[in-house]
């Protein structure tokens, strides 16, 4: 911390360290970008619509939900509502990391928040936890390779979807849960980590079994956040001791 | 659905998605001070949301998937970093799927 602060690196070096940290994310997301492209074509989306969806929505899970519903006999607003339901968790992300971005200009915030996907949020939180500033250069260094990769993979998947090898045998379909687990574990030193994880796990599983996907994400998240807020005073006391 | 409908669903969905990404910040930045309970709730966000993404996938998974996640958790408690967790979990998954099928 001390030496780094004194040296005051240039924005370009922050950008490059963001790019370096984006590599595992790009790898974890890669099969899903290709899979999305392939599935979108199978569901009748044109190449333009497939790439447009990845470039503007930029939210994997909700894109999958969207293409499932495009062929369903339902009203367009229901499709939009389902997409919003999957993405509702982002409200919590921007509220959480927005607290650390006072040094960004309003324009930087308006631009930066577009890229606030799950891994982007998790990496930014980890950086804060390690006592380091979230500079705009670092944030974009992390965001841009993942974004460009995602849009490019959707395009490739749409063009060459039939050539994708057996994803199951290579474990590609389960790579994202493993990645998310490693992110969950990286926050384990936070106060109330275990009770929050326990309550969110139970709530999301019950919601998944009863109400069904995609609502389990928001329900599980809200359950854990509520618990964190409820037990707040206890946690602060423990920290002070 | 017609091509125009699909196009507009994508555009409207994207606008709303962007609003969810900036909305939390816009609401919270209207307050001068953040209540300690809100603060504590927000500090619980990463664990809460990421767990909700993993838990149902773990429940739906077979022995190979559960073993892969368990390996990742154990490696993490032993002090392994993100990449170690990632690759050890992945290796267990591929190996078990190969031998169990």
**Given the structure, what is the number of helices of chain A?**
13
Percent of residues in helices of chain A comes to over 70%
Strand content of chain A: under 5%
User: Could you tell me which chain pair has the largest interface and how many residues each side has?
Assistant: A-B, 96 and 68 residues
Assign the structural class of chain A, choosing from mainly alpha, mainly beta, alpha/beta, alpha+beta, or little secondary structure.
mainly alpha
Give the rounded overall mean pLDDT of chain B.
90
From N to C, what is the helix and strand string of chain A? Answer: HHHHHHHHHHHHH
Structural class of chain B: mainly alpha
Helix content range of the residues of chain B, please?
Answer: over 70%
Assign an overall shape of chain A.
globular
What would you note in describing this structure?
The complex is a heterodimer of chains A (241) and B (101). Chain A folds into two domains: 10-183, no CATH class; 188-241, no CATH class. Chain A is 74% helix and 0% strand. Chain A is built from 13 helices and no strands. Chain A has helices at 2-7, 11-42, 47-56, 60-70, 76-87, 90-98, 106-112, 118-129, 136-160, 175-186, 193-210, 215-230, 232-240. In chain A, helix 2 runs parallel beside helix 9 (136-160), helix 4 (60-70) runs antiparallel to helix 5 (76-87) and helix 11 runs antiparallel to helix 12 (215-230). In chain B, helix 4 packs antiparallel against helix 5 (82-100). Chain B is an all-alpha fold. Chain B has a domain at 31-100. Chain B has five helices and no strands.
């Amino acid at each position: 911390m001390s030496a780094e602060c004194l040296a005051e690196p240039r924005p370009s070096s922050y950008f490059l360290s963001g790019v370096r940290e984006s590599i595992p994310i790009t790898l974890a997301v890669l099969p899903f970008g290709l899979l999305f492209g392939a599935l979108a074509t199978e569901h009748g989306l044109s190449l333009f619509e497939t790439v447009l969806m990845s470039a503007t929505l930029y939210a994997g899970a909700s894109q999958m939900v969207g293409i499932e519903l495009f062929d369903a006999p339902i009203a367009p607003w229901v499709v939009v509502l389902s997409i919003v339901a999957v993405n509702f968790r982002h409200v919590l992300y921007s509220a959480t990391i927005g607290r650390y971005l006072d040094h960004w200009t309003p324009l930087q915030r308006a631009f930066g928040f577009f890229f606030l996907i799950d891994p982007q949020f998790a990496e930014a939180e980890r950086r804060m936890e390690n006592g380091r500033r979230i500079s705009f250069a670092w944030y974009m260094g992390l965001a841009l390779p993942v974004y460009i990769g995602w849009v490019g993979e959707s395009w490739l998947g749409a063009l060459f979807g039939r050539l994708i090898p057996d994803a199951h045998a290579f474990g590609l379909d389960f790579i994202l849960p493993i990645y998310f687990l490693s992110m969950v574990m990286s926050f384990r030193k936070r106060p109330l980590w275990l009770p929050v994880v326990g309550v969110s796990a139970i709530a999301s599983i019950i919601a998944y079994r009863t109400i069904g996907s995609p609502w389990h994400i928001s329900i599980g998240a809200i359950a854990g956040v509520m618990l964190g807020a409820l037990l707040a005073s206890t946690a602060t006391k423990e920290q002070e001791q | 659905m017609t091509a125009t409908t699909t196009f507009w669903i994508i555009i409207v969905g994207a606008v709303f998605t962007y609003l969810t990404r900036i909305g939390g910040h816009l609401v919270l930045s209207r307050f001068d001070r953040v209540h300690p309970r809100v603060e504590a709730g927000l500090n619980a966000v990463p664990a809460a949301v990421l767990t909700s993404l993993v838990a149902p996938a773990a429940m739906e998974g077979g022995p190979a998937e559960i073993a892969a996640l368990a390996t990742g958790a154990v490696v993490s408690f032993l002090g392994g970093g993100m990449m170690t967790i990632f690759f050890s979990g992945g290796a267990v998954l591929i190996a078990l799927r190969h031998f169990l099928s």
